[in-house]
Amino acid sequence: MFSALRKSLQGDRSPASVRANLLAGLTVGIIALPLSMALAIASGVPPQHGLYTAIIAGVVIAMAGGSAVNISGPTAAFVVVLLPIVNEHGIGGLLIAGFMAGVILVLMGLARLGRLIEIVPYPVIIGFTAGIGVVIATLQIKDFLGLDIPSLDGHFTDKVVTIAQALETLDPAECLVGAVTLLVLLSWPRLNIKVPGHLIAVLVGSLLAWMLGGLGEDYAVATIGTRFQYELNGIGGHGIPPFPPTFSWPATPTDADGEPVGFTLELIRTLLPSAFTIAILGAIESLLCAVVSDGMSGRKHSPNDELIGQGIGNMVAPFFGGIPATAAIARTAVNVRAGGTSPLSSVTHGLFILVAIVLLSPLLSYIPMAAMAALLVVVAWNMSEVRHFARTLRIAPRDDIIVLLTCFSLTVLFDMTIAVAVGMGLAGVLFVRRSIDLAQTRSLRPEHDNLAGVPGEVVVYDINGPLFFGTAQKALKALTDVTPGVRVVILDMEEVNMIDMSAIVAMESIVKDLNGRGIALVINALQPRMILKLRRAGIRKRVGMIEFARHLDESVRKSQSMCLRV
User: Fold this and answer.
1) CATH number, position 452
2) Are 44 and 81 in contact (CB under 8 A)?
3) Using H for helix, E for strand and C for coil, what is the string for 449-504?
4) Please, is 191 exposed, middle or buried when counting C-beta atoms within 10 Å of its C-beta (0-12, 13-18, 19+)?
5) Which stretches of 179-241 are assigned E, i.e. beta strand?
6) CA-CA distance, 319 to 309, in Å (whole number)?
7) What's the total number of domains in the chain?
8) I want to staple 301 with a disulfide (CB 3.0 to 4.6 A). Which of 67, 180, 272, 333 is the partner?
9) Span 312-364, pLDDT tens digits
10) Residues 345 and 457 in one domain
11) pLDDT tens digits, 355-364
């Protein structure tokens, strides 16, 4: 734990470095402010919960994690997971699921699973992110066009049908605000001005909404202030409460009808699949973000410490109203480009948002919902990786294409819980299948493979690759087809680097079969640790005619003496 913080304290602490990190944190904070609100709204909760997440999780994860430059907070990857939880169990259920995901992340870090998460296949990641991008963009059509839709319920196809049926209620004013905000977002990067485009686009959209509202009630657009209300300590208002996040127990979970259900074992069982999905997505995105930031900054992160830090942040945030968080690639990239080199930049970004809540809440209430929708449309487009998706379809092997399309389709048409389970399962199956292809057994010929001196009653097989449950039967099957007259079989296992219990059982079965036919076995050049495994399994004690040799010449000598004995 705290490895990134310790390394940063031991590194450059000069005034110039401190100043660079403070400025980087302010830059990221300006971007994270509207994004955090937009992502909270997209997840089905009031915008202040996104801000609380950026403050608490952003600071805690930066201090406790394994990456010095990662910026954590609410991310688009979680939207399609969190929205169904809010619809079924309310914000209380969401906060509990976030805490459970934090516990799972800590356990994953303690189990040192960081390196395993980093090797999730590329088609799985692209399938998830592209599917999430499509779902998020679809959900924004309602606010972008100002459609009169009370709620978007059901599966993806149901949402599309509902949106299509409501197109006749399009509001020109809302559509104009959304279109102008989107235009600014797309055009601003071309101007090469250092001011973040997110801030300018939201300001332009808010000013346009204010001007349209001055033309009359018919031109008024929905804003954060008109859409959301709060009541805190007997004080009520519109928009975002101008108070910092405070410690409190998560709200009581509810059922689909809004009735309180309390914290029960049944609720934990219900939320556990979603908590695992949140944890897996958080682990994948945070470690992928850390790998990207390492390439940009030249630093090295600790994957297991990063998982533990992410877990601690997600365990703490729910007690301050924060929703699940993970590292965000876009915000982290901005941090590195702006000069961020230590957790100080992430802490600064959280403190900036805290100050903005206290001082700027009345102004934030004027941000139009159409501008928030335009912001999320751009986020969805960027995370969908359209070019990479199309390139994978064009050049990838057939198996990878099937995995990509399966993950994408399940994410869009069903939900992320199913998509993550199936996607990770497919990744495992694909790995096993390709590992099976790596394991090979071939018969060596004395006249072609420099095996002079091998008696005619001896055959030599060369086994390559790992022997585990997926490859053992295939690699050892050839040994059952030896020709009549063979007295000894030599297995050259110099290039076998792993044996599991399935391979041991298969080896034992084949040795018994060979010995039952009067054929002895010599195992050549097997690594000592694997010989020890076979001896522990009792394979030499229970089966008579088997020897181990360190090199091929020794194997040939042993085979000659064994031929005489047989």
Assistant:
1) 3.30.750.24
2) no
3) CCCCCCCCCEEEEEEECCECCCCHHHHHHHHHHCCCCCCEEEEEEEECCCECHHHH
4) exposed
5) 229-232, 235-238
6) 16
7) 2
8) 67
9) 999 999 999 999 999 998 899 889 988 888 999 999 999 999 999 999 999 99
10) no
11) 999 999 999 9
